[in-house]
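Pair request: fold both.
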Amino acid sequence: MKYFAWCISLLVGLMSLGQEMLWFRIVSFMLGGAPYAFAIVLFFFLLGIAFGANRGKAICTRYSNLLLAGGIVLIFAGFIDILTPFIIQCATQVSALGLWLSICCILIFIVAALKAILFPLVHHLGTRIADGKVGASVSKVYFFNIVGSTLGSLLIGGIFLDYISISSMFILIGIVCILLGGLMIIKKSIFSIIGVVVVGSSCFYLVDKHTDYIFKNMLKEEASISYYIENRYGVIHIVDDDSYGRKNIILGNRMYDGILNVDPDTDINDLNRLYLLAAIHPNPKKALVIGVSGGAWTRALSSFPTLETIDAIEINKGYLDIIKQYAVVSPILDDPKINIYIDDGRRWLKRNSDKKYDLIVMNTTYHWRSGSTNLLSQEMMKILHDSLNPDGILAFNSTRSPDTLKTAQSVFNHAYWGTLGFIYASDSIIKIDESVGKERLDKLVLDGRPLFNEESKQLANGAYKKTLVTKLLSLDDVEKLYNLERETEIITDSNMITEYKYGIFGNK
């Protein structure tokens, strides 16, 4: 019996902590990656565990057949797990985010509580009271539960979600719960175990691993989607057009992540912030891109005539699938001078500290989202500084957070605030000469076509469109943009001020 109890303890721990990862992905998606998403999930998850453990204690005192009681609880928990994606799908029809979040919190509490009921039960089943080894028996049951919990976070959160959607994962966990509950009721025998394994294997192959009942249908209500992919890093989808008339908009976990466009004439994705680098750096040879996303910025960077090597780092391999589908960016996959690495940007820089670049470009996500400190902190600025050549330039998106400018100024001799809060930092003074800048921009060629050539951009009325340099001659002082009611601060890995102290309203 003790071995059976250990197995139940391990499997329940695996499924329970695996589901916590699923819930975190769901709540984080709905809240746009807000850092407090994990705190919300953890609070209701632990609350459910505490309540469930207390109910399990009551069952242990009232019922003698704990296998039967535990089996019934697991079967019920399994049906709730299977229904969860459909309940969330219905909840997404609710327009009020607060009400939707409340429904999710109740579900988190319920699924955590149902599995936690098994914890006291398996301790009773696996404890050897007669021979006086209570402590040793309890510790072994607890050990297997911790092993299962660790495996649940690792396998489900880190591996399975690359191949199985969150909706399908809920359904598969529910099936495992029902089968395990049935095994507890009919009691262990070689035939029952074989039967459960056969049925479980059949269900695993019959369930569609990529069906999504949670996100895709909800997103269809918001916009016309031309591409959708889900993996362990979340959901990426492309919207055909939005209310501003922009097309091919990429959203990562429901937040803006770029536009598939490289034409500076239309410039709907403000690529002028990148092309400015061609005007201010005389002869860049090597460039690094941190965060490839849809590939538009990397593709545009390849037009710089002097660049010999472009290293591009992207943590989510799902973006490569998107790049393959769109001709405007797909050439970066075959360009011999572009090397794409699937890795975390900060980790990659540490592992390749010997590489030096003339240009480093980070079009980072919103400064208030979870994990943004890893890219905006003073520690990261120092890593980037050490990866630049003496006259190298770092260009990164502050998403209009004034604290990022002060952070860059604490590491680099010079840091400037540009269009839309894009920051340009270097140990050398960055100068813009209009005539020199225009000459350099005229040399940018993509697919055999000059990107900047005033005569080729003549309007019907005879006027000429302004060149990029004309638009960006003045780098605005941050204090002209914001009337701050506080002093700007330096972002560090420890204080994480953009995420937790100031958040989305940190400019006030």
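--- second member of the pair ---
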Amino acid sequence: MVPTNEAGRYADDVEKYNAVAIEVMKKYNVSVNDLNRLSQKVHPKYGLGNDNVHYTEKGYEILAAKIIHGLKKAM
């Protein structure tokens, strides 16, 4: 997720980059843990602002839980 006022980054690029990344991962049978959808829900409440891609500690905890779940599933 890229907040709308983040300098030098464009929200529309996320979908484009993710589509290419998913295509490459599928080609090489690499599992994908899509954090973008979750980050869109988390950032409004736990982001550091509409001009910052980073999160509060709680925001990172929420994202980390999804990462941990994906890693456990892959193991």
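Observation on the second member. The helical segments are 11-27, 36-46, 57-74.
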